[in-house]
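Example 9 (inverse folding). The structure is encoded as follows.
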C-alpha cells in the first residue's frame, strides 16, 4: 500500500478546513507546515469573536470593499500566519498549502513572514476574473516558490 505524501495530506487538510469557513462567497483553507509538521492552520472569515457572515448575512454575505472582496474577513493565509505568530512559531522556511492562490496583499505577508514555498489548489485570478495571479507572480519574482498543486 502506497502512503500519501505529506503534501497531499496537508492539501487535503486545507480543503477540509475550507469547509469551516463562514463566508457565503468562497471557502478557503490554509495549512502552514515545516519539516513534515503542522505549524498552524487557518480558514477565511472574520476575526474570532466578532460575527459569522453566514449567520448574520446568509443571503448576501458581508459588505464588499472597492475590489469586491469581503470587507470584514481575514483570508485563510492571514489567519494561519497570525495564529502562528501569536503562539510564537517560527515561519522562516515554512511551506503554505492553500486552496486558493494568494492575493497580492497575502503574498506580501507570506514573503515578509519568511515562508519559502506555497502550494495552491485553485487560481485566485480565475476565481476573481483577473488576467493573472498577481500574488503568485510576486512570490515567484522574489524567491518564494508558488506552484499549483496537481
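The amino acid assigned to each position is listed next.
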Amino acid at each position: 500500500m502506497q502512503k500519501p505524501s505529506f503534501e497531499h495530506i496537508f492539501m487535503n487538510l486545507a480543503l477540509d478546513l475550507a469547509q469551516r469557513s463562514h463566508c457565503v462567497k468562497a471557502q478557503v483553507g490554509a495549512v502552514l507546515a515545516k519539516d513534515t509538521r503542522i505549524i498552524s492552520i487557518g480558514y477565511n472569515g472574520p476575526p474570532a469573536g466578532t460575527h459569522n457572515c453566514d449567520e448574520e448575512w446568509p443571503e448576501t454575505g458581508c459588505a464588499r470593499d472597492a475590489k469586491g472582496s469581503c470587507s470584514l474577513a481575514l483570508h485563510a493565509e492571514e489567519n494561519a500566519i497570525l495564529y502562528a505568530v501569536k503562539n510564537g512559531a517560527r515561519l522562516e522556511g515554512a511551506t503554505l498549502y492553500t486552496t486558493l492562490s494568494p492575493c497580492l496583499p497575502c503574498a506580501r505577508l507570506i514573503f515578509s513572514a519568511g515562508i519559502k514555498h506555497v502550494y495552491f489548489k485553485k487560481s485566485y485570478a480565475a476565481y476573481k476574473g483577473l488576467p493573472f495571479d498577481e500574488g503568485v507572480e510576486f512570490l515567484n519574482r522574489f524567491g518564494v516558490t508558488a506552484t499549483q498543486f496537481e
